[in-house]
Amino acid sequence: MTSTTFMSTANFxxxxxxxxxxxxxxxxxPVKVSFSKHWxxxxxxxxxxxxxxxxAKWVKFWEKRQQPECD
Length: 71
Fold this sequence. Notes:
It comes from Mya arenaria (Soft-shell clam). InterPro entries: Beta-lactam/transpept-like (IPR012338). This protein is an alpha+beta fold. The chain has helices at residues 33-39, 52-64; strands at residues 5-6, 21-24, 27-30, 48-49.
């Protein structure tokens, strides 16, 4: 699981991450990375950044209770 990190520690310059948007009465506005990083200190599982491969390893771990394989 080499592609999982947290919003509070992620280096957004090195990661290929989609930009977040806020819906405000039907209009979409981009959310600045600085805002997300600031509030990341207060959130739980919603601030985990991962990809489908690492998520599949995590699910497999809980299904079999085995340590995930390293890439």
